[in-house]
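Open question from group meeting: does this chain pack into something compact, or does most of it stay loose? Before anyone orders reagents, we agreed to write out a predicted structure and look at it together. Recording both the input and the output here so the notebook holds the full record.
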Amino acid sequence: MATKQPAKKTAALPEKKGHPTLFLFRKENYLIMLAGLAVIIIGYALMVGGGSSDPNKFNPDEVYSFRRITLAPIVIIIGLLIEIYAIMRRPKTEE
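Structure tokens returned:
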């Protein structure tokens, strides 16, 4: 008769010295993510404004300025690229 083999045990992830496996990313990744978030917030802050105190008056030069139409979206995209880099960045392996 065939012998029954015990079920395979799932091995726990090995803990590196000084780094328990509680978080998905390391500290450096989180710092880069915070920097990317700050850049995105700056981009949205560049878009704010352009209103008029008189609701019957429209000032297209203020609403469609270079800062709001070109610069702010570029800054936001740079912030999103920083976020992607922070997520994809692998920590250096210690030997």
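Observations to bring back to the group:
The two ends are 47 Å apart (CA to CA).
Residues 66-88 form the longest helix (23 residues).
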